[in-house]
Each structure stands twice: as C-alpha cells, then as structure tokens.
Amino acid sequence: MRTANYIRPGAIEFxxxxxxxxxxxxxxxxxxxxxxxxxxxxxxxxxDTYRESLVRSTPEGYEVPGHEFAGxxxxxxxxxxxxxxxxxxxxxxxxxxxxxxxxxxxxxxxQLVRIPSEVSAPEAATxxxxxxxxxxxxxxxxxxxxxxxxxxxxxxxxxxxxAIRAKGIEVGRVVAVDVHDRRLEKALEVGATDVLNPKxxxxxxxxxxxxxxxxxxxxxxxxxxxxxDCAGYIKHIPGPPPLEVALHLxxxxxxxxxxxxxxxxxxxxxFGYMIQKEPVIIGSNGYAAEELVEALELMRTGAVDRRTxxxxxxxxxxxxxxxxxxxxxxxxxxxxxxxxxxxxAR
Length: 346
Hints:
By secondary structure, this protein is an alpha/beta fold. Helices cover 27% and strands 25% of the residues. Keywords: Metal-binding, Oxidoreductase, Zinc. It comes from Sphingomonas jatrophae.
C-alpha cells in the first residue's frame, strides 16, 4: 500500500510497501481520495507536538498522519450493515492513517458521514475543520451587532468566518488577524470586514480604531465581544501570544474567548485582564456529530465555498513537498490527492 511515513520534525517520506489494513468489527475500510494537512499536522512537522495522537502505525513501523479525508468504502467489517461498498464518505480518525490509500474508520456519527453527490472529494476533505468552526460559533452564542475578531486565518479561522456568514448572524465588524497577507486576502473574500497583520500594526490599537475603544474602571478594550483564537501558540512567531492580546482586546463586559488553536509549548502571559474584565474563556475541541452533516450541507447548497480555500494540491508521492508548502506564507489549505478522481476539482 502507498502511504506517507512521518519520521521526525522536518522529515516525512512516501512509501509503497506498507501492509494494507483490514477493517475490524464495526469498522469500514475507506479508499482515500483526498486528505488535508491539518494545522495540528503542521505543529507535529515543526517540533513533534501532538505526535502521539496524530499518527497511526503500520506493521512495518511507518507512522501515518492524516485525520481529515474523503473517499469511498472499499470493505465492511463484521457487523456493519447500514453502509455499502462504493459509498462516498468523509472519514475522521483520532489517530491519523488518512495519508494512505486505505484506512479503517469506525462506524459512528462522529467519524463517518455520507458525502452528497454535489460535493467533490477535496471539498469533502475539509468537512472536519468546518465542523470544528461550526462548534466554535455555536459555543460563542454571538448576539446581534457584536464585533468579532478571529486570530488565525487558516482553514479553521476562515471556516469560522464562513460559518458566521452562512448562518446569517447580524454581527458588527468581523476582523481577521494573521501574519500572512495571502490568508488575510482570503479572509476578506469569505466575509471579514477588516484584516490586520501584526507584522505591520499594533493589533490592539488597530482593532480599537475599527471597533471602538472602551476605557473604564475595568481597563481598556477594543470593544470586541467575541475573540476566536484559532492560532494558539506558535513558538517561532514573535510577540505576545494571541490569548494575551485577546484579553486586552475583549470587551469590558460579557466578553467571550473561544480557544481552539494548538499550543506548541508552555507560555507566559499577562492574565490581569481576566480578573478585571471577567470574560468567559471557552475551550473547543472537535464538534457535535450533527455539525459534520451541517458542514456538508453548507457545501452542497453553496452557502460556503470550500474549494476556494484549497490553495495547493499534491499527489501522495509528493507528501514531503506538500508539508513544506503548507508552512509557506502563500498556503491556505494544502490537499493531498491520492486517487485521480480527487485530483480534479468539480
């Protein structure tokens, strides 16, 4: 079987000699057509962060990443009766395995869902990150007129903006923050009203100029009611972590900070505004099962366009080049195409 093999930070290779998996009871075997490189995969590629939860080992000892993918059912495990061979499906695995020709997926509504005929495999391979975004928006409980700020305009942050717009929430300003101009351009395309690059501005001052400055006994804020932290902590990016900036930005009353981005290490932050402003900090990890279905329905109806977020496509045998591309400033979402059907966008 053809597969990727993650070796160590900065090193991932293509193999052609892996043992094909077989589905256990309650699983299906999926022929992978397209698999995305997730932000967590990139954390691992940079410094081994989350490695133990992102790769699936083959009998040969190859460590296969990939947990957001689309393909067709190739075989059924014992006891599986509600699925048929040949059905198009989105698969989500907790321990990787998707960057390969075949991967076993448990049959449950959190990990396996049917793809509408109108949605291509590369689009469908972005279902899981869009479902993550839908959960974040649900948890934020955004009220009409509130200003929103999104740290990180990668596939997750852009999905948050798409979800807000697709749901028709009547927000105030939607501000995207990222260090890569290409991603900020994409944020404007999918519905942000304003974009900020920390390399060229003071994020607090710029956000306050856009959304309005508050200053009272609780301190100062940029009148941002909800901050989505889709960046987390990336060690090589200078400046305070997004969570510290979020605490400064967040409104002096009823603020919510939704944390999703991964953390590459421990970090030091000034937590004073947490006490002064009393915001709610909410962690978000994953999605509700129905949000996988909702994400695909948004794609099917055209309420969101995920194709525009796929910036690069590589065949599986160029997996090393694909990971390098995902780390470059011009990348939004890099997609590995494993079969010919997935190599052509619909």
